[in-house]
Amino acid sequence: MGDGVVEFSFADPPYNVGYGYEGYEDERVDYREWCKEWFGELRRVTSGVVCVTPGTVNFLDWVEMERPSGVISWTKPYANSWNTLGRPNGACAWEPVLVYGKSKYLVKSDWIEASLDHGEGLSHPCPKPMKLLKQLIIGFSGVGGQVFDPFCGSGKIAVACKILGREFVGTEIVGKYVREARGLVEKAERQTSFGQMEMNVHQK
């Protein structure tokens, strides 16, 4: 990819906590060096803002690696981050979204409330909520702009781009996730086309 060819990039990388992703084991001894490598490429191909969701577990490492321009607080209503003994259980009630670069659009808030999506039948173990993705896309890209995600996972950001009128390009190494993502995008295309047809009928 050439320099600055996409307007906005979003990255939700593996957190290096031993999670299994359909054959990809999330444990790397060179995790920080690996992140520096792909993040450098992400900055190179993006003309605008890059957002990274590092999880709370890697938050400080990312800040040390490269200081962000800003931080968005993503809060999850109804998430229970503490068990009955008052100890963390790993299900954080908030996560940071690191912002790198300067947006040319008006970002109305540094706080996004978005509950985790459940019951979608997706194989990916931790897809980000559609509401969160939509708000980031709206805040850091314009209609017709290109959005890039190097860790597509479930493909929900591709669907969000389809709904919001953005171009999308992404990569994913797990074939099963790619097939499911294509299915979600095709479903969104059918729904979008049907909605446009209904609008035309009402306008006539």
The portion of residues assigned to helices is 25-40%
The side-by-side strand order for the widest beta sheet comes to 7-5-6-4-1-8-9
**CATH superfamily heading:** Vaccinia Virus protein VP39
Category by helix and strand content: alpha/beta
Largest β-sheet summary = 7 strands, mixed
Distance between termini? 44 Å
What are the secondary-structure elements, in order, as H or E?
Answer: EEEHEHEEEHEHEH
Chain-averaged pLDDT: 85
Backbone CA Rg: 18 Å
The CATH architecture can be given as 3-Layer(aba) Sandwich
Instruction: Count structural domains.
Output: 1
* Count of DSSP strands: 9
Description:
The chain has helices spanning 31-45, 59-65, 130-140, 156-164, 175-203; strands at 6-11, 20-21, 24-25, 46-52, 70-75, 94-100, 111-113, 146-149, 167-170. The chain has 204 residues and is an alpha/beta fold. The protein has one domain (6-203): 3-Layer(aba) Sandwich (Rossmann fold). It has a seven-stranded mixed β-sheet with strand order 7-5-6-4-1-8-9. A two-stranded antiparallel sheet has the order 2-3. Strand 2 (20-21) and strand 3 form a beta hairpin. Helix 3 (130-140) packs across helix 4 (156-164) and helix 4 (156-164) runs parallel beside helix 5. The longest helix is centred in the last third of the chain and has 29 residues, at 175-203. The N and C termini lie far apart (44 Å).
